[in-house]
Amino acid sequence: MLTEHTQPTPMKYLTLLVVLALFSGCQSADKTETDHDGMDMAHDWITLFDGTNMDQFRGYKQETMPANWVIEDGAMFASAPGQGMDIVTKDTYTNFEFEFEWKVAEGGNSGVMWHVDETAGETPWMTGPEYQLLDDAAFNDGMIGKNSAASNYDVQAPSEAVTKPAGEWNTARIVVDGTWVEHWLNDVKVVEYEKGSESHAAAVAASKWVGYPTYGTTSTGHIAFQGDHGEVWLRDMRIRRIDRAGE
What is the pTM assigned to this prediction? Predict the structure, then answer.
């Protein structure tokens, strides 16, 4: 039993609670989610598209969204592909983890690019590396190649074929952490590379991009989706920024 001299006072209780709260806060701040070396996932997810509006996007080199991008059943839909239908995020991103779902019609073809600089080219692919979106069964006799879905388009083929048939939803994830890049498709990591490495430079030199000096030269920029190649649906888009360790 506590005596009159040992019984804690309300002030002592308050001090103890403050100390405990500060200790707990320090533990929470130190506890971050880490994937690749140096990747700090402390940032919250930002919703880019929730099925109700396209406020986070605009047309490439345009002030507003192209009229033929519409919302259909909770998805952004390029309903009439053609010139002027490429779109970009309003914000720019450097190091990030980006997740979304996509599907294409039979024979469909699209792509998502990142680190896109609107001042350096007439189209997003003149600067931004591309994660390919494709109906694989309709191309290359269905064989896997460096233009297949989830490829580093025309540079590096995916490690395996995990694409769902045209008309079905696929889940995609792109990680850009400094020069390290990962492509995920339907929960499988199918591409990884070190941008600017000797092997990556050789692969670019052997691709169609060898004739485009601005390709892959940017280190920050917009995320872009092609809307000029074919019908494509996008939904459940979210992104979070990555803090580089030591920066």
Answer: 0.82
